[in-house]
Amino acid sequence: MNTPSNAVPGSHADSQGIAGPPMLRTRPMYWSVRRELWESRSIYIAPLVVMALVLFGSLISMVRLPGRMETLPAHDPAVEQALIRVFSIAPAPIMLATFLVGVFYSLDALYGERRDRTILFWKSLPVSDLTTVLSKASIPLVVLPLIAFVLSVATLGIMLVLGTAILLASGLSPATLWAKVHFFQEPLIMIYGLTVHALWFSPIYAWLLLVSAWARRTPVLWAALPPFAIVVVERIAFGTSHFCSLLRYRVTGALEEAFGINTSGGGVGHIDQLSQLTPLTFLSSPGLSIGLVFAAAFLVAAVRLRRYREPI
Amino acid sequence: MACIEARGLRKAFGATVALDGVDLRVEEGRILGLIGPNGAGKTTALNAILGLIPYQGELSVLGHDPWAERERLMRDVSFIADVAILPRWIRVSQALDYVAGVHPRFDRAKAEAFLAKTTIKRTSKVRELSKGMVVQLHLALVMAIDAKLLVLDEPTLGLDILYRKQFYDSLLNDYYDHSRTILVTTHQVEEVQDVLTDLMFINRGRIVLSCSMEEIESRYLELLVHPDNLAAARALGPIHERQVFGRSILLFDHADRDQLAALGEVRRSSIADLFVAVIGNQAGQPGGAAR
Question: B93 at the A interface (CB within 8 A)?
Fold first, then answer.
């Protein structure tokens, strides 16, 4: 009876044959995700606020643009550089915001429901622990990257319109601006980057969810202390720092594997060419598969834990 | 098929034994009150029945093992823990949407109809509602679910008398239909006296009394003794004695009504007095059964 299909109760017939009105179709996964969006409105509000700030900053930058274009020749590299800079850094804060929101969301996801005792209400409904944990994991792994993508593209679009309007108003040609923005390339690179990072960071989010299912208090400490302790003990006992490099690789590795960027060399260059993407290297990197195995293990443990957990 | 059947149900938290070999059988269509002092094991028993905690021994609820099949079981079981568990951030309309979205036996129209009788607004958040209104909302959600078993754990805790009365009235008039089973734990025993069909006392993880309300009425009699007959009444072996306004009230188990009537005024015992007699007698004799 309790088959893996329990993620979608109601979709399979009631084999027990208990009399009653016909079972209505239910969509526990869909409603569980919607429930998360109702509860944690920061999931979309925080990136929206950052988007507003980015637009505000670029507006100021672009208002200053005509003045600089007048003093310099139209094809002066300095003007192009200024344009490229404004457009290329715009999505970064939005993506960083969704990453931070994802971290804090995951830390609270399975802890908050125990702290406020609502876990008793959620468990009184026919939604399995698996569905619940997967719906919560889908927020940092699917929903937030989608939000980051939509808002980033919208930001670039608005900036383009603003820039064009400002240039035209000052009697300048927006040709340079349009020549520098890659309409199809930019969104493609963003989709690739967000997908790559969702997969690459999945063990981090899964670990945070696991801790939030386990901790009785201060999940933030429980999430950070064990890795920190391993680093310290390894350093003192063996004088090495393999675990530390492992953690660093987990944070920056996606850039190395998916974009062929050498992060140890210092600054991260700008990615504006599709040729910089190295999806095959990324997909075949052991770092990805090992990470996914860990993510799955952490999520399975979180499901098991939620089954046993009571309100705190 | 019994609705709930347990044999040798046991649960320990570390060295504390919360359930010490509980045997119970609840037939379909009964309204059972599980009454016990604090820490008697009521909530642990309910949690085991609802599949919220693992346990030792045999337990079957509607033919399912609750721990292995909680999610399956929750299609046929509704549960109100207490007033504090509805999420404070949720809007009334969202709560209706969500339960309708995940529960195959939820009848939204029924819940709306019940809410229409209250002053609860669809757009309100739970945090804006009074305690009594939150219970009304939870009850509206639960009563609209076509469940076979409804479990209520202290459902009226902290409510004023109007809401408490209303709660049980709604439950009996709009929900209970003799095919559903209701299991309720409460401290307010006098309140459920006329609601229950069966009564169970639990103390220190054991069931110390279990019988139907008809049985209670025929079995347990209270005697307001004439002072002259006190010695004779005591000789009949009351299970409990208390003083009210200087007069003795004796509680008898399995006594002859006519015999008692000769000694004073006979009346039926309230659950509260029975509770004090049975559980109070236990206090001095660990593990002793009252019957």
Answer: no
Q: How far is CA B78 from CA A122, A157, B144, in A?
A: 11, 50, 10
Whether B174 and B279 map to the same domain: the answer is no
Distance, first Cα to last Cα, chain B: 27
Chain A residue closest in CA terms to B76: A126
Query: Which of left, alpha, beta for B124 (phi over 0: left; psi -120 to 50: alpha)?
Result: beta
Highest mean pLDDT (candidates A131-140, A157-166, B33-42): A131-140
From A24's Cα to the closest Cα of chain B, the distance in A is 5
| Phi-psi map region of B36: left, alpha, beta (phi>0 left; psi -120 to 50 alpha) | beta
DSSP string of A217-280, one letter each residue: S-HHHHHHHHHHHHHHHHHHHHS--HHHHHHHHHHHHHHHHHH---GGGSSPPP---GGG--HH
Task: Report which DSSP code applies to B90.
Answer: -
Tally of domains in chain B: 2
Cα separation values, A112 from A104, A126, A211, Å: 11, 20, 12
To probe the interface with B, which of A29, A34, A45, A124 has the most B CB atoms within 10 Å? A124
| B89 CB within 8 Å of a chain A CB | yes
**How confident is the model over A174-223, as pLDDT tens digits?**
777 777 777 778 888 889 889 999 999 999 999 999 999 999 989 999 99
pLDDT in tens, A237-293: 998 889 998 898 888 888 788 887 765 544 455 566 777 788 888 888 888 999 999
- Look up the ipTM and state it: 0.86
Q: Measure CB to CB from residue B69 to each of A2, A121, A127 and give the nearest one.
A: A2
3-class secondary structure, B41 = coil
Residue B290 lies in a domain: no
Tell me which residue range forms the domain holding A136: 27-308
In the DSSP assignment, the letter for residue B266 is E
Answer yes or no: are the C-beta atoms of B224 and B267 closer than 8 Å: yes
Is residue B289 included in any domain, yes or no?
no
Task: Measure CB to CB from residue A31 to each of B78, B85, B98 and give the nearest one.
Answer: B98
- The pTM score is 0.85
Q: What tokens does B223 get? A: 């005697």
Looking at this protein, which amino acid is placed at residue B110?
Answer: K
Give the C-alpha separation, B122 to B99, whole Å. Answer: 14
Dihedral pair phi/psi, residue B290, rounded to 5°: -90, -5
Residue A15 in any domain: the answer is: no
Q: Cβ contacts (< 8 Å) between B103 and chain A: which residues? A: 26, 125-126
A59 assigned to some structural domain: yes
Strand order through the sheet with B77-80 = B77-80, B149-153, B181-185, B31-35, B198-203, B206-212
Q: Is residue A2 part of a domain?
A: no
Q: Which domain holds residue B222?
A: 215-284
> Which of A34, A35, A42, A125 to mutate to probe the B interface, most B CBs <10 Å?
A125
Q: Is residue A8 part of a domain?
A: no
